[in-house]
Amino acid sequence: MLKLNKKTSGLWSVGILLFLSFFTMGCQETNRRAPFFATGIKIGEVTSNSAIIWVRLTKEAERVSEEAPMPEVFYKTDSGEWIKRPGGRRPDLPPKVVYPEGHDVTNIEGAVPGMEGYVQLKYKEKGTQNWQSKEWLRADKSTNFTNNIKLKNLNPNTLYEIELVSSTDRKKTGETIKGSFTTAPMADAHKPISFTATTCISYDDIDSLGYGLKIYDEMEKLKPSFFVHLGDILYYDDLGKTAELARWHWDRMFSLPAHVNFHKKIPSYFIKDDHDTWMDDSWPGRETRFMGDFTFEEGLKFFTEEVPVASPNYRTIRWGKDLQIWMVEGRDFRSPNTMPDGPDKTIWGQEQKDWFYKTVAASDATFKILLSPTPIVGPDRKNKNDNHANEGFSHEGKEIRNFLAEQENMYVVCGDRHWQYVSVDAETGVKEYSVGPGTDAHAGGWEADDKRPEHSFLRVKGGFLEVKINREKGIPTIKFIHRDVAGNVVNEEIIQK
User: Fold this and answer.
1) Which overall architecture, per CATH, does domain 186-231+313-496 show?
2) What are residue 43's DSSP bridge partners?
3) pLDDT, tens digit, 9 for 90 and up, residues 277-289
4) β-pair type (226-229, 268-270)
5) Domain limits of the chain?
6) Nearest to 115 by CA among 40, 71, 195, 57
7) CA torsion 270→56→212→263, rounded to 10°?
8) Model pTM?
9) How many angstroms separate the CA atoms of 56 and 483, rounded?
10) What is the pLDDT at residue 497?
11) What is the pLDDT of residues 153-182, one digit of tens each?
12) 43 by DSSP, 3-state: which?
């Protein structure tokens, strides 16, 4: 028998612990099997009894790091010369994407190659052991290895836990990723509700390199009931010249750690605008050579596959007695910006407008909020011609503002503009809150000292908007709180019914 003195025994114990530690680490690493979930999950379209869980299978557990190179884009002039994009303009010239030697779309910065396989969702109410399982779903290249899994017959105002498991063959399991969400309360329930919203996220302007947007951590601290992304979730314009590069934009953005962490905890509603559909100020039928092989129609398809979203894209959700939200679609049905203004020129399309007017009129919610990817009130820059605050769509804009003015306690929260503001339409009194861009670096397009009579608040910086609905001493109250990228309050308005 081996006899150990106290010193030797201590060293032996340390050695055993180190061995077990390395062995355990090795086992853990060995147990990690593809497919992975490097782009996380997204919990979307939550109602009082349903939700959609988005998931994607990946070949690797992590994204390609920021140290990897990036491709360059050149445009062919009419004289045959290849040039870089001139002065920020979007030339109507055919592009060419040039990758560094030995690289392609699978190994440039932020790349997260997908992997074929299967995924299964399990869910249960928090505090119970009654796990329910959905059937295994196959993921393949046709949808960028994504799936949108619908949950129905949920209980209102209930915290649910979810687990997603990957597999190559539905027998041997790979990775597991967990999340949670709370369903909306019933329409007659009095319950405090809050949500956060932002817009315009350019990857080049992300304020925490390799980690993601600072506002995601700040929003999570507030524990909102839900989050709304009001469009321009990413920007295809510079590099989205092929379907593969368009998909890479989504993989790159949503594999950032801050984004993965946020979206597995906070349910979201996603609304698209021009840059995350195709290019700046895009509309159906617009012609350009600037976007190469990537088409407007592909952009419409990809959006429905890269985020959890309902069909049709315009929808209304009730969150208890005191809040109902409307999310509108601003790209699918619009007329060309170049069309002369008049009663036939539209952004929403007649079917969507009829739905909006009907559902708003039927609502008995205390507070009603229109969540629009573009401004309804403004003011906006004179050189813009893409939204209801512009002269190019003034006929429909006036029609919508007149309708909103007839509603009690209804407000507009808008995206698209790269500055925060609160404005009141001089003719109708409709009030609009612009959430502003997600980072300071992306702010601009308006002068900070150009505060108009319409403005009660103006700030040309980034951040987000927080909206809180509660009853104070029995009186329904809504608060609109603009915050900066660090979560600090920069403006607050309190409105009681």
Assistant:
1) 4-Layer Sandwich (3.60)
2) 53
3) 999 999 999 999 9
4) parallel
5) 186-231+313-496
6) 57
7) 50
8) 0.93
9) 32
10) 87
11) 999 999 999 999 999 999 999 999 999 999
12) strand
